Amino acid sequence: MVKRNVRVIISRGAIAITAIVCSACDSEVPSVGFLETVWVPPAEKVEVHSLGQGETFGGLLYGAVDANEQEEVLRAFQNYADPRRLRERTNVVLRYRAGTNKLRSVDVAVSKDRTVRLTRVDDRWRSSLVQTPIFVDTVYATGEISETFWGSVVNNVDLVEMTFEDRNLLIDRLDNVFQWQMDFSRQIREGDSYRFAFEREVRPDGSMRDGKLLAAEFVNLGVPYHAIYFDPNGDGYGSYFDLDGESVRRAFLLKPLSYRRISGRFSSGRRHPILNTIRAHRGIDYAASIGTPVMATSDGVIIHRGPKGSFGNTVEIRHSNGWVTRYAHLNGFNRDVTLGTRVRQSDVIGYVGMTGLATGPHLHYEMLQNGRHQDPLAVDLPSGDPVPADDMTRWRAEMSGRYELLKTIPGQSPLRTFEAEAEDGRASGGLQQGEGA
């Protein structure tokens, strides 16, 4: 009896059929034969386009479909996106039926994570939204700082598979978590070290869609600081706590930008660079490139969004306990943020510019309490809430698992081990020194 297995391989429009013929006799060596390759034409013709400067989606369709169909394609596209908002270098894929010039489908990459697919069905055009698939992994890294924190992370060999853009984003995440313990632009010293476990959502091209720190340690001048992620409400808006369950956050961010240089400090009198007069400077100036995202420093409600005299484009947010924050010289606003919008800490509200009286691109940031200006760098910010007492059991379980992740990463500082649980449900004395990982 002869058994035959047939494997079909499709490559570049060709079908190769391989037949393996095996003899039923176990004592004989099987004979293997190959059939000749059979070439067939491709099932479709594919054209990949990129919108040029000033080019529109409708203009790109010219010649691919007639005028009536072009209007129908654009109407179908508008179910998911505005064709007028497509940017230069947007990728558009046209697929034609083989052997004809009849367009069968169009794919428009409206973002890295979303593609609008337009398909001809019974001579009518239909649209659907295709989400870019992702996979989830965890990145582990450790490093010692020789010059700058930025350089140490960007050049870290543990992160070589991450894109340069993603490594910069990772720096921002670390800066956001540890900003209340240290200023990465001023307080970092040679010999400081870090280690962390970072969970990320990865696209097929290797770029990161999103991610969060699961656990991190930073050692500054020999003092270790820890941050463990925990989501008490399970709503995706978790926060970071130290090893004793105390929040590492404060009610306000220390700064509304990520890892930026201070170009002007709070002062009761300084010479204005444009007016050339001595006047008070009631805020902090952060030098940054035009278009850099500006974040709300605390939860609150938008009470002003628009021009404001010498401040140029300005956003003001009212917070609890009489606090108001002001963000000036903006290039533009987040279009989802309008007057009366409720924002959360770290939400993007606008973008750095140089509107109003400004000599260069920067953000002017002010804090007022009950109408009185406060120095953002000197104000005693209220602490964030600790882990809720009702969630302590779940916190200890999740924290223990995430803390174990750090123990698998070599580091400069010995990690600590838990003491016996105290009567109040918290770890007595927090943690003790143990053997380094």
Layout of SSEs?
Layout: E1 3-11, E2 14-22, E3 38-39, E4 44-50, H1 57-61, H2 67-77, E5 91-97, E6 103-109, E7 114-121, E8 124-131, E9 135-144, H3 149-154, H4 164-178, E10 193-202, E11 208-220, E12 223-230, E13 239-241, E14 261-264, E15 267-271, E16 278-281, E17 284-287, E18 293-295, E19 300-307, E20 313-318, E21 323-333, E22 342-343, E23 348-352, E24 362-369, E25 372-374, H5 392-407, E26 416-418, E27 431-433
Antiparallel strand pairs: 1-2, 2-3, 4-5, 5-6, 6-7, 7-8, 9-10, 10-11, 11-12, 12-13, 14-17, 15-16, 17-24, 18-23, 19-20, 19-22, 20-21, 21-23, 21-24, 24-25, 26-27
Outline the structure in words.
By secondary structure, the protein is mostly beta strands. Among the domains are: 3-39, no CATH class; 44-131, Nuclear Transport Factor 2, Chain: A (Roll), CATH 3.10.450.350; 261-374, Glucose Permease (Domain IIA) (Distorted Sandwich), CATH 2.70.70.10. 12% of the residues lie in helices and 39% in strands. It has helices spanning 57-61, 67-77, 149-154, 164-178, 392-407, and strands at residues 3-11, 14-22, 38-39, 44-50, 91-97, 103-109, 114-121, 124-131, 135-144, 193-202, 208-220, 223-230, 239-241, 261-264, 267-271, 278-281, 284-287, 293-295, 300-307, 313-318, 323-333, 342-343, 348-352, 362-369, 372-374, 416-418, 431-433. The strands form six sheets. Strands 14, 17, 18, 19, 20, 21, 22, 23, 24 and 25 form a ten-stranded antiparallel beta sheet that branches. Strands 4-5-6-7-8 form a five-stranded antiparallel beta sheet, covered by helices on one side. Strands 9-10-11-12-13 form a five-stranded antiparallel beta sheet, sandwiched between helices. Strand 10 (193-202) and strand 11 (208-220) form a beta hairpin. The longest helix has 16 residues, at 392-407. The N and C termini lie far apart (62 Å). The model is unreliable at 1-25 and 417-437 (pLDDT under 50).
